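B., you asked whether I could sanity-check this one before it goes into the benchmark set. Here's the sequence:
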Amino acid sequence: MRIFVTFEYEASQRACLEALTVGRVPAALDAASSIAPHHRFQYGNVLNVEEAGEVDDVVWNKLHKTTRQRAVANAVGYAAGGVLLLFGISLVLTASAAAGPGGAGALMGLMNLVLPVGIKMTVNLFEAHTSVSSKVASMATKMMLQRWLVIGVVMYLSWGPSAMLDATPPLQI
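And here's what the prediction gave me:
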């Protein structure tokens, strides 16, 4: 559960953060000796207190989901992105076998245009991020992995290790 607290003065916010911030691991283990007993929730539990992001960065309609629900939704999003990526890689490898390096290069260029749109759709449809910045980080990670796999790994798989040492296949693209 997340709770947002607003302060009238920044000094009050800083004092609260200084008194209660311990980090995620000590808060999860209720093991923070630096927190005075009177600052603990119900005199025993350590809370994970951290400065919230900007108000416009929070995705308010996703905050009701539990951590487990968000983890499952994000795993489904990663799986959908992985299926999309494997489909694109199989298309490029098929084109490489059928049309040679020129066909594979053309299809790789097309995949670099189409797959980011598909990745954005899977993140928006399946994943449950509580902030815009975590959503953007998820998309950027998937797009970076997609570019690396489509360009580097597919070239290696379609031409083989001995041809990668030769300059001819990359020049044919």
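One thing to flag: The CA atoms of residues 28 and 48 lie 8 Å apart. Otherwise nothing jumped out at me.
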